[in-house]
Amino acid sequence: xxxxxxxxxxxxxxxxxxxxxxxxxxxxxxxGFIIFxxxxxxxFANGTYSYTEWNGSAVVLSSGQTSGxxxxxxxxxxxxxxxxxxxWSGGEPAIELLFAVDGxxxxxxxxxxxxxWNLVKDDxxxxxxxxxxxxxxxxSSDLFILHNQDIxxxxxxxxxxxxxxxxxxxxxxxxxxxxxxxxxxxxxxIEGDQDVWKSTDFGVSWTKVATxxxxxxxxxxxxTVDSFNVIFAVDGxxxxxxxxxxxxxWNLVKDDxxxxxxxxxxxxxxxxSGDLFILHNQDIxxxxxxxxxxxxxxxxxxxVxxxxxxxxxYADSNDNLYIADGSEDVYKSADAGLTWTSVxxxxxxxxxxxFGSVAITKQTDLTFQVRNCSSANCAxxxxxxxxxxxxxxVSQYFQYxxxxxxxxxxxxxxxxxVTIDYDLVNTAPNVNLFExxxxxxxxxxxxxxLDFSTYDADGNIESCWYNIDWGADVLIVGxxxxxxxxxxxxxxxxxxxxxxxxxxxxxxxxxxVVIGAPTISLSSPIGTYSNSGDVTFRYTxxxxxxxxxxxxxxxxxxxxxxxxxxxxxxxxENVFSLNLNxxxxxxxxxxxxxxGNSATNGNKTFYIDRVxxxxxLTEPSGSKSSRTGIGxxxxxxxxxxxxxxxxxxxxxxxxxxxTSVACSLGSSSFDVSADANYVxxxxxxxxxxxxxxxSSSFSVSTSSEDTGGDGGGGTGGGGGVIxxxxxxxxxxxxxxxxxxxxxxxxxxxxxxxxxSVEIVNNEKxxxxxxxxxxxxxxxxWVESEQVRGLSAGEKFEFNFKINVPSDSAFGxxxxxxxxxxxxxxxxxxxxxxxxxxxxxxxxxxxxxxxGMLRVNYNLEEYSGSSHDILIEYKLVDFDGVxxxxxxxxxxxxxxxxxxxxxxxxxxxxxxGEFKLEFKFSDGSVEFTDSKDIFLPSTGxxxxxxxxxxxxxxxxxxxxxxxxxxxxFIFKYWWKKKHKFSLAHSFGQKIKRKMIKLEL
Length: 999
Description:
single chain; mainly beta; Jelly Rolls; Neuraminidase; 7-stranded antiparallel beta sheet; 3 helices; elongated
């Protein structure tokens, strides 16, 4: 029996240990078992939708919108808490965009797999002659068009275009026939005389790498590049060629791919599996083995009765194939070219033949911001972008906001649920020591009072104790006041309190004991604020032969004797009285007895403040067009600590009861329930009891505005409001003026200095919660923390920085910035040009092998020069401590792309989250790169730990361990019960036999 009890407890403690280990693996600490969740429409309804909605199963963009936000309810943990992580379920679906360019130099796109087409750019090349030759895209989805000898590019999905090179081959005069771009963004053009040209800088400069590569075999009609950067081309003699070195040398892969059919080809494409496709008029040929063998998969894709030949063929990311024919009809195949369906007729309205087509994938996007707050309305919180898996924020209140973005209003990102893990913070208890007083002097040494008080917000005080002169600790039973004996002389007493979780606080007092001398206890004023200059100093002296007591202080600027009492009473409260001006003062009492003994206490401080706080209330005022996010703007100033609150009345009814707001913020916001007239009352109180208040009237009307004026709808002469009509599917536009901004040139991966732009609200209404963001391709690049409500005609200067991502595409961006307010938005366009270093790095992946870390990285050279590169690296832990530092040197050749491996020994006990930081330098260029890594424990084998499976591991492991423990507990219980049943049955048999024997 004893053995089984021991086994039970061993299993129990093993379960506890394993649960703790799994929890530590999941969170890095013993946290995360308290959560808030938004999982239903009712949960999300507690938040605020802006151009978003609940569709029955998820939060999505409202119909026709391409951007919007959802702001959650304010979560109240009940006390200060550590907010650990935010996890969510939902999706950011990708959108397949098809692009085509026609003979009229117009660019078209399709969001629905070729069914409908939209004119993106009318005349991409402006004043140049109409036309196009070929179209392709790079790895960043920038579009490129080859037109004879010109190369044009668009960084914003075809909206704006710039001329990269207007004569790529100089004096040679040949026109380019095809343009191919590999996965490393190397460009290849094959021209009319079959010369091959290459560019490694996005088409800016070109080098001839091959002359008449196919030996006079005829014009090139199609080109494509596979995932290994092998280039394939097909010529007019129906021969297929490939190149493994960016067009320098070429190999004949297939002589006459279509056998006995007439020679020729029209266009070439490749799918994600590497299958090649050649369109020749109305025939489609395919090769599954990189061009070695070919088969005719369809000999009349558009069927009987339609004699239009195909002009282009291309594949999207889902391996759908598309053909645009001579009548601008579009056909689609979902089975690798076997069968075809007409999806669009005359897609560009008779605008001319299609000369190039390409497909790119655009992601919808969800961006989270959070804020933690100490006030219930979160007015003191600041929105910030953080690592959602490691929030590490401490406060009582928490809120999140999600920005939704999509390139097409027909497809929205979605949020199905949000979960927030947090733990209540265990705060240390508080202790205040009243006796002995710090600086006090006592004339006796027995039964001195030890008077103190304790408080713990968590209510888990465990014990109290004290020591004198850092001697032995003395337990205070029940944490109640007590007495102590002490020797004559100077001493220090420290009283301690701790809680059940081990947090501890203390308070101390230094005092002296002179037996026979007076004992002095000071009562008031001590650390207080008063709004009266009449001050009474209260003290209690004790001495059997007390003679005189003196009031000392710095009441006239110098600490000196002020007043003397020649007949003080012992054992009772005595007083001195003064009238003082506003200020901060120190005071003390000195007493003497008839034997010449003298004593004093420690200096005490108090404050006099008779001036009421200054208060300026500027918002809300006037008429508001929204019930939500109404701005509160104020300014408070005082010499002592202050507190602020406001309430709002709708007539005689309370709309918002007294609500505290941080005085130092100067702003907040609130919501009201209905269109009506309101009065906001604002109050400020200082620590001395002085107060001030102000009121402001405002109204709310969410109906269509008509502010009167001249009735003509003009913007001058006091006319009515002009609101721009929003474009279909776009947020409302508001009238905001911007100051001019200069063109900027920034390096990829760098940040600008602090920039500023002055805006003016040209609406005749208040604009709420205006904030600055990046527009279009610059979304996420702009860093600005200011949120501002703007009165009609008000000017305000927004400060911001531009942070260029390290993976951004090179080129010129015209997207600019957008001011988003609750009522709408306005865009300011300006030009940003992004350039790169002569060589750049990319950290690919890493692997822990025992006590060693192996890192694979890549360097690519762009300037055409070789480099001797010093690489300094360091491993930094979660707390910012550098755990390991090292360096190595490498060589990188001109125009070379090279993979490298870095290996180094890890410090002991390297487990958890780290940042691997690199600095690359060749003596003239220096830049940094970094990668967040997670190092699994070397004690765990056979398991790969990643961000995506940590939570699954934790939850699954906990469930599995509980089931295992439950099995063993049940097994122990069953055996015990079964054993008892057997014993009971056996006992009953013996008993019956004994009865029979007695009979």
